[in-house]
Design a protein that fits this description.
Elements lengths: L7 H12 L11 H40 L3 H36 L4 H6 L18
């Protein structure tokens, strides 16, 4: 029962290891010890099989992904482009609204009422004449 499913190669490698004193005692291992040595001999092959399976899975996944990208129609691309443009428009509008709220908060904090702001001369006015810069005289 201990050797159920053990390959010939695994058994040969386990016996070689036992003959080289892998168990630390004379030959004639117990069945569980022999099975342990067989399993140890086959570890590399099991790991290699897992790695090959992962590579195969990854290759299949990449092929599926490539196929799904190629299957996109111009209608699907237009739909995505439209959704992205709507997102950008909402994002820009929300940023503008946030800036306005921040400006109103600052104006309220420093007492900058519309009357006070109206009394401040325009920075683009000529300092000497009070007329707009570049305007007709």
């Amino acid at each position: 029962m201990a050797l159920d499913g053990v390959t010939r190669h695994g058994l040969v490698k386990a016996v070689e290891a036992i003959l080289k004193n892998a168990l630390g005692h004379p030959f004639f291992p117990s069945p569980p010890e022999l099975r342990g040595q067989c399993d140890k001999a086959m570890d590399w092959y099991r790991q290699e099989a897992r790695r090959a399976q992962r590579r195969s899975d990854q290759t299949r996944l990449n092929a599926d992904l490539d196929a799904s990208h190629e299957a996109k129609t111009s209608d699907a691309r237009a739909k995505v482009r439209s959704a992205y443009q709507r997102f950008i428009a909402r994002y820009d509008q929300s940023k503008i609204e946030e800036q306005e709220v921040a400006r109103a908060s600052i104006r309220a904090r420093y007492g900058m009422t519309p009357e006070v702001l109206a009394s401040i001369p325009n920075a683009s006015d000529d300092k000497r004449t009070g007329r707009p810069v570049g305007g007709d005289a």
